[in-house]
Design brief:
This protein is α/β, with parallel strands linked by helices and 402 residues long. It contains 17 helices and 10 strands.
Length: 402
C-alpha cells in the first residue's frame, strides 16, 4: 500500500486520521515474520526473520529514534548498533512465565498442541526451548533506551523476563467520541456485542456456548418473567478476518451456532468501518470479552465508554487494570468471568436487569473508562520518550495538552 492508502485505511477502519503526511519505506522481507513460514520453532523463526527485516529497514532508512510497537525485540541490538535510540512499546511479551507454566504443566491450549502436551519428552524439550528464547529475549529487550508496556500484566512479565522496570502507558481509546453516545438504550431487543479478531485465542466458541445456555434458560421459561427481556435478543460478533485460517475459523463458528440452535440469535459482522462499529456499540446493552490473559483489552474500554456493560475474562488487563473498583470495597464497573457457566450467569443477570439498574451500572463503567483517554496516552507516551526526544518536540506536545 502507498502512504496515502495506509492513511486512508487508518482513518476509515479506526477513525485515526494522520496529523501530517506519512512517509513509508517499502520492505521486501516483510514475509519473514509471518508465523506460517515456521510450522515448528515458530517463535525462533519469527525472531530471526524480524532481524533480517530490521536490517533491511535500517539499511533503507536509519532513524534517529527507532520505535517498535510490534514486539520485534530482536531488532533492538541492530538498531542500537546502527546509531538509533531505541524505544519499545510492548503489547504482549513474546515469551512469558505463563507460557512456560503451560508447557511445564503439559496443558493443552491453542499454542501447545495435544501431541506435545501428552509427551513428557517433547514437553521437556519445548520448555527448554522457551527458556532459551526467554533468555535471548531479555538480552535483546535490555538494548532499548526507553521501555514501555501497555498494562500491569505485561509490566510484570517484561520486568521478569528483561530484568528492567518498564513504564506503563495504557493504549489510547476514543473515549470522548464514545461518551457522546446516550447511555439509555431501547429496552428490547437486548443486544450483546463482542469485538475481537477471529483468532483462536479470542475464544469465540466460549461466547457461543454461554449464549446458547442463556437462550436455553429463556426458552425453558417461555420468555416469561425476567426472561421476557431476552425475547429477540442478539449476540453480535464483530471482528477482522486476516487470512484463510481465520475464514475457516469463522465458518466453523457459524456451523457451531447452527449446532447449538442459536444461529438466528447470533449475527456475525466482519471488516466493518469505524462508523458502523460505533452504531453497533450505541445499541449494545452489554459487551462480551472471553480471551484469557488479554494483555490489555481495548475493546473492553470501548464497551464501557459507549455505555455497554462489560462482561470480561477474569485475568490480565481486564481484571487488573480495566474492570476494577474505583476504591477497595467499591462495586465493579462490570462483570468478570472464567467458565462457560459464569459467563451465562453474567449475561443473564445484566440483560435481565430492569433498565434503570442497568443504566446505573453502565454509568459506573463509563466513568471508569476515563483513565484511558487519548490525551492521557499522549502525555504518558511522550513523557516516557522525553529523554530521547528533542526538547522542542516535548514542548510542542505539552503546549497542545494545555
Amino acid at each position: 500500500m502507498t502512504a496515502e492508502q495506509l492513511s486512508e485505511r487508518a482513518a476509515t477502519l479506526f477513525g485515526v486520521p494522520p496529523l501530517r503526511p506519512v512517509r513509508t519505506v517499502r520492505l521486501l522481507l516483510r514475509g519473514l515474520v509471518l508465523a506460517r513460514l515456521y510450522p515448528v520453532f515458530t517463535l525462533l523463526g519469527q525472531s530471526l526473520g524480524s532481524m533480517a527485516l530490521a536490517l533491511e529497514a535500517l539499511y533503507k532508512l536509519t532513524p534517529a529514534l527507532f520505535v517498535d510497537t510490534a514486539g520485534y525485540a530482536f531488532a533492538y541490538p541492530l538498531a542500537s548498533a546502527a546509531g538509533s535510540k531505541v524505544a519499545s512499546y510492548t503489547h504482549y511479551p513474546m515469551v512469558s512465565t505463563d507460557m512456560l507454566a503451560v508447557v511445564s504443566n503439559r496443558a493443552e491450549t491453542f499454542n501447545n498442541r495435544a501431541w506435545v502436551a501428552r509427551s513428557t519428552m517433547l514437553s521437556a524439550v519445548k520448555a527448554s526451548y522457551y527458556r532459551l528464547l526467554a533468555s535471548l529475549y531479555g538480552s535483546a529487550g535490555r538494548c532499548a533506551d526507553v521501555i514501555m508496556v501497555n498494562s500491569s500484566w505485561t509490566e510484570g512479565h517484561i520486568a521478569e523476563m528483561w530484568r528492567v522496570r518498564p513504564s506503563i502507558v495504557y493504549p489510547p481509546c476514543d473515549i470522548e467520541s464514545l461518551k457522546a453516545l446516550p447511555l439509555d438504550r431501547p429496552a428490547m431487543p437486548r443486544i450483546v456485542i463482542s469485538v475481537a479478531q477471529f483468532r483462536p485465542e479470542k475464544a469465540h466458541a466460549q461466547q457461543l456456548r454461554a449464549w446458547a445456555a442463556v437462550m436455553q434458560r429463556a426458552a425453558a421459561s417461555e420468555f416469561a418473567g425476567r426472561h421476557a427481556y431476552l425475547r429477540g435478543a442478539k449476540l453480535v460478533l464483530v471482528g477482522g478476518v486476516r487470512h484463510a485460517e481465520d475464514r475457516e475459523r469463522l465458518d466453523g463458528l457459524r456451523a457451531m451456532a447452527e449446532r447449538l440452535g442459536i444461529a438466528s440469535d447470533v449475527d456475525f459482522q466482519t471488516g466493518i468501518p469505524a462508523v458502523q462499529l460505533r452504531l453497533l456499540l450505541a445499541s449494545a446493552h452489554a459487551g462480551l470479552h472471553t480471551m484469557r490473559d488479554e494483555h490489555f483489552g481495548i475493546s473492553v474500554v470501548e464497551y464501557m465508554a459507549a455505555g455497554a456493560v462489560p462482561i470480561a475474562h477474569r485475568s490480565a488487563g481486564p481484571a487488573m487494570d480495566i474492570v476494577v473498583p474505583e476504591a477497595p470495597g467499591e462495586p465493579l464497573p462490570g462483570r468478570l468471568c472464567t467458565s462457560d457457566n459464569e459467563y451465562a450467569d453474567a449475561l443473564e443477570e445484566v440483560l435481565c436487569m430492569p433498565e434503570e439498574e442497568r443504566l446505573g451500572l453502565a454509568k459506573l463503567a463509563r466513568d471508569a473508562s476515563e483513565e484511558f483517554t487519548e490525551l492521557q496516552f499522549t502525555s504518558d507516551f511522550v513523557g516516557a520518550l522525553a529523554r530521547v526526544l528533542p526538547r522542542s518536540a516535548v514542548r510542542r506536545v505539552s503546549t497542545k495538552e494545555e
